[in-house]
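Hi all, long-time lurker, first post. I run a small reading group and we've been trying to get comfortable going from sequence to structure in the token notation. Rather than ask abstract questions, I figured I'd post a concrete chain and ask someone more experienced to write out its structure so we can walk through it together at our next meeting. Sequence below, copied exactly:
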Amino acid sequence: MVRVRPFAALRPPREIVTEVASRPYDVMNSKEAAAEAGKKSLLHITRPEIDFEPIAGEHEDRVYEKAVDNFCTWQERKWLVQDPKPCYYIYAQTMGERTQYGFVLCAHTADYENGTIKKHELTRRDKEDDRMKHVLIQNANIEPVFFSFKDNDTLAAIIAKVTSLEPEYDFVAPDDGFGHKFWVISDDADIQAITAAFAGVDAFYVADGHHRTAAAARVGQVKAAKNPAHTGEEEYNYFMAVAFPESQLKIMDYNRVVRDLNGLTPESLLKALEEDFVVTPLEAGKERPEALHEFSMYLDGKWYRLATKEGRYDDNDPIAVLDVTILSSLVLDKILGIKDLRTDKRIDFVGGIRGLGELVRRVDSGEMAVAFALYPVSMKQLTDIADSGMIMPPKTTWFEPKLRSGLTIHLLD
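-- Answer (accepted) --
Happy to help. Here is the structure in token form:
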């Protein structure tokens, strides 16, 4: 069972929430962050390299120091103000016709260590180290992680009750066009009901934020080691998350672009693909994959469908049957010579929110030689793999909308 508790969030006053809230640190580069950040934007805390001229390196000591200075300044100027008591919060995001409602809460680091918080991706130590350093120097979780959980009737009823009231925040973000609403749950009876209901939830699944989750667990270990009176209930044992019922979430495609054809011509690549795929040209408007084990490929100004032939994958293996595995094995490795998706510089990844037009742009520009569009993974595939203790290949899932940063911050003391 998962352990959760409310927290007294540090958050912006209603009248300036749109000036403070920002896109998350990892969906843009430094130049994009600098262009996007207004005077009060949280990006000055999450991407402080933008405050140097020229823009500094992300991992320089002076950049970490600037993050601390800015965090203190935002509190001194009352751009971030702490709630007077621990609360839960509900955060709603609207993208097109779909709205998802998540609980903003604190999860326990021990649940990550014992597997109650389940992951489906490997993490890189250097990225964990960076996130861990940010948390330690700020003594806070500045940005939440993104969890899913199996649908729960009691929690669904609480969402319906709370969201029938006027929200604390209600805005459409100008940079992504998504709607964001936010409610504060301060009533003690509601808080107790939420805590009790989550005690009946078997597990959290990390949807987005594997490195931040791993870093939070390591922060808890570091602080516990320095506290001879450690009990496990100190604030540093908890970290901030937004948890959504899985039925409300949608995974988008996560596509691949490759810089060269590994010495092949477009014609010889097409010929090599015919060993494992039925290759057919695609008509305009039919470029997006329509089913599992079908891929769309953009090559030399044309789109092709790659339908995987029978016997080329194992339906009884939850990892081998994934389209990312099939593509990696039969195309990226076998034909294009890309052995490690995590380290090979010849491959890049494009989230589905950017559309197939981004794949065309990167190939037509000459930056890339070929692009592959994939059919998205399902939530059932994700949870089945996480439940089995297995790990998906890198860059398999892309969740949208991304969580807005700056609506809540969790202090660790």
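A couple of things your group might point at:
The first strand starts at residue 4 and ends at 5.
Residues 252 and 398 are 5 Å apart (CA to CA).
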